[in-house]
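User: I'm writing a tutorial on reading structure tokens. Could you give me a worked example: one chain, its sequence, then its tokens, then a sentence or two explaining what the tokens reveal?
Assistant: Sure. Here is the example chain.
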Amino acid sequence: MLIRTRLRLLFSGLLLLFFSVGILSLNVIQDLDKTVAEGSAGRDRLISAGKIRDLLLSASAEIEDLANWQPADRTRFFGRLDICKETIRRMITDLDEESKTVRTSIESLSKPVTDFDRAVKRALRYLDEEGTDSRNLDLPRKWLKNRLIPDMTVALQALETQLQNQMKELEIESNLSYARLKLIFQGTAFALIIFGLGFYFLVRHWIVTPLELLSSATREISGGRYGEIIPITSQDELGLLARDVESMSAEISKTQAQLVDRERLAAVGEMTATIAHNVRNPLGSIRALAQTRLRSEKGSDSDQSLMQILETVDRADRWLKDLLKGLKPIKLSYGEAELEARIPSICEAVKGYADKRQVSVEFTITGPIPKVKIDERKIEQTILVLLNNAIESCDPGGVVRLSGRSEGEVIIIEVSDDGHGMSEETLSNLFKPYFTTKKSGLGLGLSLSQRIVAGHGGQIEVESELGIGSQFKLTIPLRSTEAREGEEGAGDGTDPHSG
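And here are its predicted structure tokens:
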């Protein structure tokens, strides 16, 4: 999983946690607020009920002196009852629809208060009409004492009991809401601690530690220690970056090794060119002296020795020329060439050498080969090197085959033999300069051949097996690049058969 996906999941989880906690907290706070509000209203109703009780008790006590009431006493008495009625009305109005039991109790209290008001007014009317001696004056007084006051007391007690019970329930709900809110915040704090620790360890495992490893690896690379394996096994962005750094380090190491080899070869080449140049001068003097002595002493016994000296000097001179040729840049001269017509003559050129080693040379051309713009002389030189090497690798009775064909945008020339073949070690060093398995070889034949083919934008492929033979495959593009100065894209090495 990619790091950005992991981080997105972590932050999504964190947002989900905060969102869930926020919603739960809001709900609990709303419940707690509602409970507190209902509790406050309940306390107000309980206070109002106590106020009603006090007013009714005071009013009931004044009934005993009903006959002696003055107008101010009457006004005060009915004012108290009006306050009780208004308090009851307000209590009913403030109730919500869910408080049906409390509403019923308050309404049951309203009727005795109203009847109390009517009974007192009736008694006062009797008092005004008949005087203090009226028998009807005792009837409402007894009725108030025996019926209305007990009913009001019972109704008040029932209302107060219900209000107290409601207050207890609200207190319980308030405590539960507080406990839930406390639990939510405690759980949130615990979850944030766990999430924070997990976030820290995951980020350290996913990002910090890999970055430290990458930083350490880059310091190693900058210090010249290439090819280090970075211990990051993940397949995320940093894991891919680690593989890229490893690949880059390997390429730098490979390039550095190639540069060292090239500098070494350049130094060897410069030294070799100097030695070859210095050796050719005394060889020329030796040849001149031997040739002069041969002419002056013609017919003597030393003729054979002098001829051998001349042959040895000429052979050494050829070696030195080949050596100097291998050190010089290749210059290609492009022109239109018909390889189909040149293949038979190339085979004819090596026929004498093949007959001497009792080796057969065969050639085949598959289909027409179109004209191509190449350096014909150097391509022929390359094919001749391959043919000579193939002939040298064969025992008497062996067969060397040369074939040519056109495939798409390339010309393919193959040279195969049924000779000794090459080992894996020989194949790995095949195109390195000055590498050879022949006693008299310089190790430059295949090196030059590969450089020539590469200069044409082609390549040489080799397949070989010990005891079975070898096959060299030259691929030359039909649309060859234009003539270039020097060698381009050349490989290294030579064939063990090259001379």
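What the tokens reveal: Residues 481-499 have pLDDT under 50 and may be disordered. The longest helix spans residues 138-222.
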